[in-house]
Design a protein that fits this description.
Arc Repressor Mutant, subunit A, 5-stranded mixed beta sheet, disordered N terminus, 3 domains, WH-like_DNA-bd_sf, transcription, alpha/beta, about 325 residues, WH_DNA-bd_sf, DNA-binding, elongated, D-Maltodextrin-Binding Protein, domain 2, DNA binding
Amino acid sequence: MSTAFFIGLKLWLNLIILTLHDKTMANLKHLDLNLLRVFDILMDERNVSRAAERLSVSQPAVSGMLTRLRDSLDDPLFIRGQHGMIPTERALELADPIKKVLQDIDQIVTPVEFIPQEAHFTVTIAATDYALQVILTPFLKQLSLQAPHIKVDVRMIQDSTVQEQMERGLIDFALMTPNTAPPMLRAKTLFQEDYVCVVRQEHPTVQGDAMDLDTFCRLDHALVSYSGGAFSGATDQALKTLNRQRNVMVSMPSFLSLAELIRSTDFCAVVPKRLAEGQPLLKQVALPFQVEGFTKVLVWHERTHHQAAFKWLRALIYDTCQLLDIAPLAAQTK
């Protein structure tokens, strides 16, 4: 951090100290900035659980920091009430000065200008093999041209641990769907994806670019199950509404292996349309019924939300989708 930051922090802490009783002056000098932010958010939320959510930490962690604040300031600060926490007179007295110091510190610590060509760091992205092929491969091409020294660590995504991994700084971005994205993380819509059926070009049964429902259900099918062992998916849910079912014979762990299987056998598969485009020796066949597609979103944590480098990376990922003729939905960010 810059010298200006520490000078500004010391100046404003001294101003806060002037508002305190002599009894708490010495203790306040040992407070760190994190405790001041906890106090400020507790004043806003009047609830430990909601404060923990905003801070992206556990409820016990917030309770522990509140205990430190109480000890340092020699005041209970917040008292449990019927509809939340009630601030004491001392807390009300400190609320405005502390909020002011935090706002001024944020202004003092102005972000350093981000120059992509000079950046040297590693960004970690969690994705499925679908997202790797459709989004990350073209993104990496753009990144190598615009920021050649940024390294990218791509990891297979585990939906259930994404929030924890982001909180611990183990991953920076995740490519997910709205129903799998943790609600406490930030997200931006990238595009809407649809499904198509694919078979090998010389398939003996499927001629042309269409088939009827009976033919579709008679064929042997393969699908992708990232968790393994699943023999049904969105396609089967759609068929169920028609009182029909297909013959799923193979469950594969990735779309890469699935594509190779379809090229070398008479199996067929229902896959995301953008993944099917450009696949050698495969042809797309229109589905004889409607299968609901999915939305792809970029997910990140509050800890990187305001950092210039990560703002730039988010924009590059989104812009890459547009350059690939992916029609983005109206930009939705939370």
